TrEMBL record:
InterPro entries the record matches: Fe_traffick_prot_YggX, Fe_traffick_prot_YggX_sf
GO molecular function: iron ion binding
Family label: Belongs to the Fe(2+)-trafficking protein family.
Keywords: Iron
Role: Could be a mediator in iron transactions between iron acquisition and iron-requiring processes, such as synthesis and/or repair of Fe-S clusters in biosynthetic enzymes. Necessary to maintain high levels of aconitase under oxidative stress.
Name of the protein: Probable Fe(2+)-trafficking protein
One annotated Gene Ontology cellular component of this protein: cytosol
Signal peptide (from-to): none
Record-level GO BP terms: cellular response to oxidative stress
Natural source organism: Zophobihabitans entericus
């Protein structure tokens, strides 16, 4: 049975995550306030953010940058600044 939460990112009720995917207090907040759909959108952005900025997950400074971008994206409604990425032109 799916868990319905009020998604902070989508600003509506949506299916919640099945379990806590991120550690600590931020992870608890994500589990309680972020939907599967919003998390999926973040995962796509995170991949682009890591690749375009050539970040290394083993580097604590890089992990901090990723976490800050995640918080801004999920909870503060800010777009993730992805250097070097140009969105495709709309037809």
């Amino acid at each position: 049975m799916s868990r319905i939460i009020f998604c902070h990112y989508l600003k509506k009720d949506a299916e919640g995550l099945d379990f806590q995917l991120y550690p600590g207090e931020i992870g608890k907040r994500i589990y309680n306030e972020i939907s599967k759909q919003a998390w999926s959108e973040w995962m796509k952005k995170q991949t682009m953010f890591i690749n375009e900025n050539k970040l290394n997950m083993m580097n604590p400074e890089h992990r901090k940058q990723i976490e800050e971008a995640m918080i801004k994206f999920l909870f503060e409604g800010e777009a993730v600044d992805i250097h070097g990425y140009t969105p495709p032109k709309q037809l």
